[in-house]
Amino acid sequence: MKAIRLIEPGRPLELQELAVPAVGLRDVLVRVKAAGICHSDAHYRAGKSPVRPLPLTLGHEVAGVVERTGAEVAQSKAGDRVCLHYLASCGECVYCQRGNEQFCTSGAMIGKYRDGGYAEFIVMPARSVFRLPDEIPFEQGAIMMCSSATSLHALNKARLQPGESVAVFGVGGLGLSAIQLAKVFGAREVFAVDIQPGKLALAERFGAVPVNAAEREPVAELGRLTGGRGVDVALELIGLPLTMRQAVQSLAIRGRAALAGITDGTFEVAPYLEVLNKEAEIIGVSDHLAQELPQLIEWARRGLLDLSQVITRTLPLDPRAVNEALDRLEHFAQEGRMVITPWP
Questions:
Q1: What is the pLDDT of residues 271-289, one digit of tens each?
Q2: Phi, psi at residue 337, to the nearest 5°?
Q3: In this predicted model, what pLDDT tens digit does every residue of 298-321 receive, in sequence order?
Q4: 108-112: which pairs have CB atoms within 8 A and are 24 or more residues apart?
Q5: DSSP conformation class of 24
Q6: Cα–Cα distance between 329 and 335 in angstroms, integer?
Q7: pLDDT in tens, 116-133
């Protein structure tokens, strides 16, 4: 099979010919129909976030069709349309047993610690394979498995309740899903904070109130828009110390800031004014859970989560096209999501 692989950090990805992966007793072999190109992949290629072992096939947002299954697999069969939870976990350790498989002691994320979906085939444990309804195109099913799923987990961690207000810092792939999912949760108002007018315009089409942080200081603007109260929930989806601090500062009394953006930087908090005096909370968000995916898939099937406007480009399984796409992400020159579609 063909696969696009990271050979060495700092170098372009390369096309290689590999054997089709072997299928274990509890595994499912999937013919890839769509693989999302995530900003994380640009970090992996650049060496900003380590991956192993090398060479490695990138791609952690995957949807496709079951090619064959292991002898002990009952829930999937050849021909099924599926999408993949990007973590291969053991299902047996204390974290998996508690439903926190993102901390699995032997877990491995595809496209980072085991071969991912920039290929014609991928093999995964059956417990990471979910049926994809006919109503959801493969491209949308793929990107749901990272950006939408992480946004849902962030909202769950923040305990968003009907009638509450939400500020979404960062209107990329995660942010556009978060806006729609917050509406599904019953949020009274959703504010979208970004510096790019094109992203803010799309957020407004999904019902969010745009806040252009390049034109107005966002904490003050959110205060003005909420009558000085602040927001009940703030999601930080960018990964910048500045926006993390702004998310905390924008909170109302008993507000919750859920931080999902990844950074190695730090930010300051004024404990009394910004946390203690409000009984506010700062919540870490790590990945998402397999148990959350059925609800997410059902909302997408019913059209409550619409990703049709989020995907702006589809690409072939070609290293030149994929490297150019990663270049665009690395330089923040891409609005919307890009998806590899290796098979028609």
A1: 999 999 999 999 999 989 9
A2: -100, 150
A3: 999 999 999 988 888 899 999 999
A4: 109/60, 110/59, 110/60, 110/62, 110/84, 110/86, 111/41, 111/44, 111/51, 111/56, 111/57, 111/58, 111/59, 111/60, 111/86, 112/40, 112/44, 112/49, 112/51, 112/56, 112/60
A5: -
A6: 9
A7: 999 999 999 999 999 999
Question: What does the chain come to in residues?
Answer: 344
Give the pLDDT score at 343: 65
Reduced to 3 states, what is the DSSP secondary structure of residue 222?
Answer: helix
The answer to whether the beta carbons of residues 63 and 16 sit under 8 Å apart is no
Structure tokens at 165: 């207000």
d(CA 4, CA 323): 10
pLDDT at 344: 59
Strand partners, 2: 17
Q: Which two tokens stand for residue 54?
A: 């090398």
Query: Model-level pTM greater than 0.90?
Result: yes
With beta carbons less than 8 A apart as the criterion, state whether 236 and 257 touch. Answer: yes
335 neighbors 196 (Cβ within 8 angstroms): yes
155, 179 in Cβ contact below 8 A? Answer: no
Answer yes or no: are the C-beta atoms of 195 and 212 closer than 8 Å.
Answer: yes
Residue 169, H or E segment: strand 165-169
User: 210-241 as b/e, with b when 16 or more CB fall inside 10 Å?
Assistant: bbbbeeeebbebbbebbeeebbbbbbbbbbeb
CA atoms within 13 A on the CB side of 99: 4
Give the confidence band of 331 by pLDDT, cuts at 50, 70, 90: confident
Q: What are phi and psi of 99, to 5 degrees?
A: 80, 20
Please give the Cα distance from 39 to 45 (Å, whole number).
Answer: 10
